[in-house]
Write a structure and sequence with these properties.
190 residues; alpha+beta; 5-stranded mixed sheet; globular
Amino acid sequence: MRKKAGLLAGSVVLVLAVVGTASAVWPHGSAPEVDPRLRAELTPLIRHHLETRHYERGLWGDSYLGPGSRTLCEVRVIQTREEGTALAVGIHVLCEEFIARDATLLLGSGYGGVLLVELNGAQGGRTVTRVEEPPEHLPFNEMFDRAFTKGGVDELDRIARRGVERERKRLYDRARRVHGLPSAAPVRRD
């Protein structure tokens, strides 16, 4: 358990380090514009893919909490860019593995940070073809440069500075509903 919690903390530190480095290199800009209709199409599609295919057996290929657990994600689309026939989407994500035990929501493994998601197809028929996580060691500039422009980096910097408490609260509220727990059910790490 400590190893998995340490990996989550390490991922957050890695994101903060890269965001800080990239922000120092690129001049500050405004948050990238993502068409609200495109964001509304992509967010549930990417979330569903992460929850049911990419992280279906837990965040590291096996379920930490065992049978009945489920990984849920909060996805924030930061920006999009067309690459030929594909759409590259830079996102910030918060995913946690959950299970209900004794009227308590238990947390297992988790991941918070940036991902590059590639999709093919036209509006209404897009499919996720690839999810790229940052490499374990710096630099991951190639992936990062493909995912985010200077405005995207600035948006990630704002997320890193304000924290992800709002996203975490939405994720916990959704996990309680999915597992049939009351809205005030306690949450604890297993």
